[in-house]
């Protein structure tokens, strides 16, 4: 079950907005064989120009879903975000399921659903980078063992330019990153130095 933790900045989160978000996010559960027991972190901001921004992050054991949308209508923004999250799931479903089947044929991470033949995939907008020279935000997360290909998938789903992970092959901490030419780079650590 996906539970929503909703936080508003410069806006009061009304019951109507809360119910709309919970209803839309709960529809994502149909894409998984066992509905993940997790929290969807929802941030709602409003700006002085009447525009609002909604951001949803759903961290799960083997996958992190994230999308954001700016819109004058918060309800429309939530609808657009859920569409983005569904596209992320559909886009990566086959690749991730293939990896899980190679390791454990009985286990499927995603539910078997028919894909809409007319469904288009668009890349999520890149986050705007903060160019300040001081730390304005700190995050703590557990590094998961995976190979570099899985790390690139996770990085692209998050819409980030880099991703830190435990390399399954070397058992060390590694970083994949997107280069300016659109290709990917890998930084591996060496414990023997």
Notable characteristics:
four-stranded mixed sheet, 193 residues, 3 helices, 8 strands, single chain, Double Stranded RNA Binding Domain, alpha/beta, SHC Adaptor Protein
Task: Report on this structure.
- It is a single chain.
- The longest helix has 30 residues, at 74-103.
- Residues 113-132 have low confidence and may be disordered.
- The protein is α/β, with parallel strands linked by helices.
- 27% of the residues lie in helices and 27% in strands.
- Strand 5 (145-146), helix 3 and strand 6 form a beta-alpha-beta unit.
- It has 2 domains: 1-113, Double Stranded RNA Binding Domain, CATH 3.30.160.100; 136-193, SHC Adaptor Protein.
- Interacts with 100S ribosomes.
- It is found in: Cytoplasm.
- Residues 135-186 form the Sigma 54 modulation/S30EA ribosomal protein C-terminal domain.
- Keywords: Cytoplasm, Translation regulation.
Protein topology:
Elements: E1 2-9, H1 15-26, E2 38-46, E3 52-59, E4 64-71, H2 74-103, E5 145-146, H3 148-158, E6 162-167, E7 173-178, E8 184-188
Parallel strand pairs: 1-2, 5-6
Antiparallel strand pairs: 2-3, 3-4, 6-7, 7-8
Helix pairs in contact: 1-2
Mean pLDDT: 77
Strand content: 25-35%
User: Looking at the chains present, what oligomeric state does this protein adopt?
Assistant: single chain
Silhouette: globular
Low-confidence stretches: 113-132
Reading the helices and strands in chain order gives: EHEEEHEHEEE
Count of discrete structural domains: 2
- The number of distinct β-strands equals 8
C-alpha termini separation: 45 Å
> Structural class, from secondary structure content?
alpha/beta
CATH class (first level) name of the largest domain: Alpha Beta
CATH names the topology of the largest domain as Double Stranded RNA Binding Domain
Share in helix? 25-40%
Count of helical segments? 3
CATH architectural arrangement of the largest domain? 2-Layer Sandwich
Largest sheet: 4 strands, mixed
Organism: Salinicoccus sediminis
Domain Sigma 54 modulation/S30EA ribosomal protein C-terminal: 135-186
Function: Required for dimerization of active 70S ribosomes into 100S ribosomes in stationary phase; 100S ribosomes are translationally inactive and sometimes present during exponential growth.
Protein name: Ribosome hibernation promoting factor
């Amino acid at each position: 079950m996906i539970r929503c933790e909703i936080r508003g900045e410069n806006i009061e989160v009304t019951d109507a907005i809360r119910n709309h978000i919970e209803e839309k996010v709960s529809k994502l559960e149909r894409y998984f064989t066992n509905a993940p027991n997790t929290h969807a972190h929802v941030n709602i901001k409003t700006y002085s120009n009447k525009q609002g921004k909604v951001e949803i992050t759903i961290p799960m054991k083997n996958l992190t879903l994230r999308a954001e949308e700016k819109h004058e209508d918060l309800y429309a923004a939530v609808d657009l975000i859920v569409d983005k999250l569904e596209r992320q799931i559909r886009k990566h479903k086959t690749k991730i399921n293939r990896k899980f089947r190679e390791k454990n044929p009985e286990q499927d991470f995603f539910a078997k659903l028919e894909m809409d033949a007319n469904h288009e995939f668009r890349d999520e907008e890149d986050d705007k980078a903060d160019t300040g020279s001081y730390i304005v935000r700190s995050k703590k997360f557990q590094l998961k063992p995976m190979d570099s290909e899985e790390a690139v998938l996770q990085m692209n789903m998050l819409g980030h330019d880099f991703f830190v992970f435990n390399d399954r092959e070397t058992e060390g901490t590694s970083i994949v990153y997107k280069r300016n030419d659109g290709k990917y780079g890998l930084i591996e650590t060496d414990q023997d130095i």
